[in-house]
């Protein structure tokens, strides 16, 4: 699935969904199951703490959704490796680090497709796969991103710059309810929704903490010359 939304629309969607669905997600699931279904896409589309609307239409992924809904409501999103097109309907190669999300909203459409909201839960690493299903099931291990007090303080110092970046891609350049969104979720929301190359997004996901991700995200945008040109 590829989104054709404008950057402002994507970030506005992130903010709205974050405020609406994050409290639901925190109550619904707080640990990562050992085994989860995988939803591979050509771009990393989920970061911890960030919501993502998805449209699920392929039969195998409809099955995957029903499997998840009958269990822990958790789906792992991973990125397809380059050249995946040749094996797309089989088992194309994937990168081993992804992000799991918990399903917080589902709408079944009359033709059997689904609109879903997935709330980012935690990063994970794929350990092995069960190939006996039409979709992919993997044994995974969670990757923690817990910040120390010192790291939280450093991230707080970077927040004004991050909000400046955010204001450039939201309607009318306004800072939307910044005090209601934790620092790490601002970082992860920008990493998920700002336009960039898939490999750059995966590099951000693979970093060990939101602090490193914030520093890398700022450097990435500044290297592109200006925020306006970047977005």
Strand order of the largest sheet: 1-3-4-5-6
The CATH class of the largest domain: Mainly Beta
Number of domains: 2
Q: Architecture of the largest domain in CATH?
A: Roll
Structural Rg: 17 Å
**So, the CATH homologous superfamily of the largest domain?**
LON domain-like
Q: Helical content, roughly?
A: 25-40%
Tally of helical runs: 7
Word description of this protein:
Helices cover 39% and strands 24% of the residues. A five-stranded mixed β-barrel has the order 1-3-4-5-6. The protein has two domains: 7-143, Archaeosine Trna-guanine Transglycosylase, Chain: A, domain 4 (Roll); 149-230, no CATH class. It is an alpha+beta fold and 231 residues long. The protein is globular and about 45 Å long.
What is the strand and helix layout of this fold?
Blueprint: H1 7-28, E1 35-41, E2 51-56, H2 59-70, E3 74-79, E4 97-108, E5 114-130, E6 136-143, H3 149-167, H4 183-193, H5 198-206, H6 210-223, H7 227-230
Parallel strand pairs: 1-3
Antiparallel strand pairs: 1-6, 2-5, 3-4, 4-5, 5-6
What keywords describe this structure?
single chain, alpha+beta, Archaeosine Trna-guanine Transglycosylase, Chain: A, domain 4, 2 domains, 5-stranded mixed β-barrel
Describe the structure concisely for a colleague:
The chain has 231 residues and is an alpha+beta fold.
């Amino acid at each position: 699935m590829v989104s054709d939304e404008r950057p402002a629309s994507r970030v506005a969607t992130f903010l709205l969904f974050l405020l609406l669905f994050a409290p639901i997600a925190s109550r619904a699931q707080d640990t990562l199951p050992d085994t989860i279904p995988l939803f591979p896409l050509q771009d990393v589309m989920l970061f911890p703490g960030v919501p993502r609307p998805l449209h699920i239409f392929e039969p195998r992924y409809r099955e995957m959704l029903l499997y998840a809904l009958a269990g822990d409501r958790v789906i792992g999103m991973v990125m397809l490796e380059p050249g995946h097109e040749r094996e797309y309907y089989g088992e194309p190669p994937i990168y081993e680090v992804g992000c799991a999300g918990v399903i917080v909203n589902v709408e079944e459409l009359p033709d059997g497709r689904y609109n879903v909201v997935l709330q980012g839960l935690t990063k994970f690493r794929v350990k092995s796969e069960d190939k006996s299903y039409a979709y992919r099931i993997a044994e995974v291990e969670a990757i923690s991103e817990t910040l120390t007090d010192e790291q939280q303080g450093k991230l707080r110092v970077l927040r004004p710059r991050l909000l400046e970046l955010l204001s450039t891609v939201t309607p009318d350049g306004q800072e939307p309810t910044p005090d209601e969104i934790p620092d790490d979720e601002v970082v992860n929301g920008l990493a998920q929704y700002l336009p960039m190359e898939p490999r750059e997004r995966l590099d951000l996901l693979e970093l060990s903490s939101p602090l490193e991700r914030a520093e890398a995200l700022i450097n990435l945008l500044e290297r592109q010359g200006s925020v306006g040109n970047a977005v």
